Amino acid sequence: MISSNQRLVLLGQNRPALKDILRGIEKEGLRVDGQGKLATTPHPRSLGSALTNERITTDYSEALLELITGTHNSIEGLLAELETTHRFVAQELQDELIWNQSMPATLPVERDIPIAWYGTSNTGMLKHVYRRGLAERYGKAMQCIAGVHYNFSLPDSIWEIIGTPGASPEDRRSQGYLALIRNFTRYSWLLMYLFGASPAVSGSFMQGIDHSLHKLDADTFYLPHATSLRMSDIGYQNKAQSDLQLCYNDLDTFLERLYTAVTTPWPDYVKIGTHRDGEWIQLNTNILQIENEFYSNIRPKRATSRCERPATAMAERGVQYIEVRCLDIDPTTPIGISAPTSRFMDAFLLFCAIEESPLFPNNGYCRDSHDNFSLVSKEGRKPGLELIKQDKPISLADWGEELLERIGPYARLLDETHGGVHYDEAVTAQKDKIRDSQLTPSAQLLNQLREHGASLHDYSLEQSRQHRDALRAQPLDASTLQEYEAIVSDSVVEQQRLKNSDTEDFSSYVARFHAALRRPVKQQS
User: Fold this and answer.
1) In angstroms, what CA-CA distances link 84 with 48, 283, 432, 445, 494?
2) Whole-model pTM?
């Protein structure tokens, strides 16, 4: 087996391949009114169809915007597109703005949180009913938490260069991404420490939830050393998912367990049923309604066509890319993520892909990694905090320093590929946070709240207003505005086309959607 150092050397000898790394972003953000209350208005017509606009859609709630970039081979192109989309949205929202904080704004009572609507086509209704099911299973408030998803893919040539085993390019790609995911699972606690930015939450979010949070002011709860309450278990109770353990040792086992989860009834969901008063309220009564319901920090992904199941597509064509789901919104930037953070993510994910990645024991589940991530989310800035590394305690500071040293060569390799020193600077800048926890985003946010004597709600509202004003101060040029307006118009036409193309009732469509799932066939080694 080729060592990590040898792989790094081989990568350096084949640097042009690194130019073909692709990354994309899906950034969520709640629409709120001028007082920071959740917007209860429909998805704005000026943003097009949430079902078919590939750049501007919604996630769980009608008010939860999701702004999506295409794939880019540079950080500059990636963030330029994300900023352009934010500028377009900011200008179209009129009296509303995007809440630029992961933890929700002031929420109405649960029943009044609007579920996303995608029209009456079968495709749109499937998305809507799935979200009704999420409301039944987890509650609406939990689904209003927002984050940044970072999509990342390596060119197939890299898996060959570093000697990833596999009988075909698809096999090598899938094995390579699963190895990346295993290392990500081991080390993702570091992302929570460095970039977690949700150590506090507004009181309206915690109504009816038993918790042990401290009170910062009359409207703000927090934990003194938390980095990301969004990624902690605060308020999140779901027995069905907590018992679900997917395995990233091999694709066959991963898909088999995923298949089991989306085909096995769960007693509590059976009691709810699929219909109430003649209307669909969830797609089925299984542990997961669909594959994407599985809540995880990172996912292997594969693009699908209409009515194609993700697990079936992945079984047939392998993993295509990975989606990192644990990044909090950076409240200090109008687009929710900075260039240094994006560059660090590239270096970190390349490190995870290239370094040796042993299989997980214990039936593919790594308890220590799960516990480390959870501990850092809630207590990451606690002085002297210790984690578990290979069954032995180690201080977060020592392990963090070690990891940054190991990630450094990958950052420098990316700099040699793209020119400049930006990647190395992005990694080096994180060392100061390891040495002084007061420099982390979570500590900075709490310090700002104390300095301003402001609640999380009031502070976040003022920041969101400033970001909106900054985005509006840079109106789009005529050609770009025309491009976005054409995307909006085309999306409305496409939604109507989908509706007109339906040839079956919704119940039949749901049955066909479920039937499209195929039990994975274990590959012969």
Assistant:
1) 16, 36, 32, 26, 23
2) 0.97
The residue ranges of DSSP E strands in 45-84, in sequence order, are 56-58, 64-68
C-beta of residue 127 within 8 angstroms of C-beta of residue 289: no
Phi, psi of 314, deg, nearest 5: -70, -35
Contact 32, 104 (CB under 8 A): no
Longest CA–CA span in the chain (Å) reads: 65
The answer to whether residue 158 sits within a structural domain is: yes
Spatial distance between the Cα atoms of 403 and 344, rounded to a whole number of angstroms: 12
Q: Is residue 268 part of a domain?
A: no
Q: Which residue has the higher pLDDT, 142 or 395?
A: 395
86 inside domain: yes
Query: What length is written for the chain?
Result: 525
Does 525 score more than 50 pLDDT? Answer: no
> From residue 490, how far is each of 48, 214, 251 by CA, in Å?
8, 49, 37
CA–CA distance, 6 with 157 (Å, rounded to integer): 16
Beta bridge partners of 67: 27, 56
| In a domain? residue 272 | no
Q: How far is CA 350 from CA 154, 162, 169, 433, in A?
A: 8, 12, 19, 21
CATH code for the domain in which residue 500 is found: 3.30.590.20
Task: State the residue range of the domain holding 389.
Answer: 4-163+188-234+323-515
Long-range contacts, stretch 367-370, CB < 8 angstroms, 24+ apart: 369/185, 369/186, 369/188, 369/189, 370/185
Number of domains in the chain: 1
CB contact at 8 A, 317 and 170: yes
